Amino acid sequence: MKKIFEPVSLGNLEIKNRIIRSATLTNKDCADGVILPNLIEGSAALAKGNVALIITGMFGIGVNSCAADFMPRTYIDGFFENLCAMVKAVHENGGKLVVQISHCGANAMVLEEGENPWAPSDILSVMGFEAKEMTKEQIARVIADFGKAAKLCKDAGADGVQLHCAHGYLLSQFLSPYYNKRSDEYGGGIENRARIVFEAYDEIRKLVGESYPVMIKINYSDLIGEEGLMPEDSTWVCRELSARGIDAIEVSSGLALTKETRPSLKVEEGAAEGHFTQGALRLSAEISAPVISVGGYRTREQIEAVLNMGNIAAIAMSRPFANPLYIAEWDK
Ligand SMILES: Cc1cc2nc3c(=O)[nH]c(=O)nc-3n(C[C@H](O)[C@H](O)[C@H](O)COP(=O)(O)O)c2cc1C
Which residues lie with the beta carbon below 6 Å from any ligand 1 atom? Predict the structure, then answer.
């Protein structure tokens, strides 16, 4: 029988128990892209409270990658020093830190180049911006930026990186037929839609080496039926990543287009927990990489039960570890 409070290996990353803080971005995390002391202290407090692994909120990897000006930016001067301080503070309190590296694609709002966000295909973004189909040069640049960001996190002492490939941001947009209407080798069947994900992963591996922990957060389903990413295609992508040596896969769902497709939902007291448990369980039966389940876990009983239903290695949570005042704002 698996216990919550026992060590577990996520590929090459050993953590002291099965509780993870899933990626959580807040509007107090940084100023002009540089991590603020408040984020360092908050992360240290989670580590002190025995959260085994803290996954940072999404951090931008390069130009046009950020969905908000309060997203930390790995590619600017002054970022590295504060990331080093954050790693140190988490380590001193007995925790581990993984940085979520992200490109927000059509949802980018900080545009350093051109007038339009970048996307797999021309689309009006959820925020109402006209996103433009990326050229192959832009795709190559984003892949290179993922690699550089990962290497920088490794150099700062972070315990790993997590590719953000969920919730309708750039990599998730490429996987999703809803966003990806391309007719070149980056669009069409899942082998093509997933090409950028594999190329980004391979670039990261090339720069950080075989033994550095690299994870991914991915949608099991976009929750919009066949218009979006479906479980069988997501499973295929995860199987390929598992074969390539990914250290762990965090399974979420939802393209975040509407309330019904939101990946982050309030759980009323006594209500059912684990919005995406079934997908994580199914996936964990299909692949050898460790699976992390996220979405709506609130009680010790439920977490322990899910850990023992199948092959799920760890449980990640966001809302229970966040400032309730901020969450109330966020839910409006
Ligand atoms: C305030 C807030 C910020 C979030 N930021 C991110 C993020 O930066 N990257 C990400 O992958 N998910 C993000 N999420 C989603 C969570 O990581 C998680 O997948 C989701 O909230 C479901 O888990 P929970 O029910 O334990 O909150 C965020 C959620 C919240 C509430």
Answer: 22-26, 57-58, 100, 164, 166-167, 217, 252, 263-264, 294-297, 317-319, 322, 327, 330
Catalytic residue ranges: 169
Task: Give the domain range for residue 117.
Answer: 11-331
Beta strand spans in the chain (E): 8-10, 13-15, 19-24, 30-31, 34-35, 53-60, 96-102, 118-119, 123-124, 130-133, 160-165, 214-219, 248-252, 291-294, 312-317
CATH of the domain at 313: 3.20.20.70
Q: Is residue 5 part of a domain?
A: no
Residue closest by Cα to atom 3 of ligand 1:
24
- Assessment of whether the complete model's pTM goes beyond 0.90: yes
**Opening angle at CA 253, ends 36 and 213, nearest 5:** 55
Distance 20 CA to ligand 1 centre (A): 12
Q: How many domains does the chain have?
A: 1
**Residue of the nearest CA to atom 2 in ligand 1?**
24
User: Do 35 and 44 meet the contact criterion of CB atoms below 8 Å apart?
Assistant: no
Beta strands in 25-170 (DSSP E): 30-31, 34-35, 53-60, 96-102, 118-119, 123-124, 130-133, 160-165
List pLDDT tens digits, range 224-240: 999 999 999 999 999 99
As a whole number of angstroms, the distance between CA 249 and CA 313 comes to 10
Give per-residue pLDDT as tens, 26-51.
999 999 999 999 999 999 999 999 99
